[in-house]
Give the backbone structure.
Amino acid sequence: MDQTLLRNYLATVYELPTASGPLRVSLDADLEPSPAGLPELLNQPFALVTAYNPRSMLLPRKVNDGRHAVMRDLLVLGCYRVEQCVGFEEEPDGVWREPAWLVHGMDREEAVAFGRVFRQNTVVVCRNSRPELVVTDPTCDEIGKGFMANWRVRS
């Protein structure tokens, strides 16, 4: 995977829903934090998936919204608890924002399958309190290749 693209994916800020309000995190911490010091959500298994802009092709909002709704319906039919979240650039002049789904309890293999079906470059999977960026597009890298990361809680 191109190193600039990888750095951008790791620096993406995700706003995740929690009972106490939105939690902002990214995958670019230098050191692995203690699981005891992480918010409860980050100690649970989940995946972050989206259907927006397949293979980084910008699609009209109506098309993206339709694809994203289909993905949600499939996730719900699969008996997953699904919540809205968003990924964005932290830069003050950044304009990129992409809706995503926080899928509780989804395992790595199924997250990769959803990423492939919806033509995404990557998905994020959290297992054992660690995030992993997983390749789902063979034009980026070998499918299933993972990049282990560390949670960085943002204010």
Summary: The helical segments are 3-11, 61-77, 108-117. The chain has one domain: 3-154. The mean pLDDT is 96. The chain is about 25% helix and 30% strand.
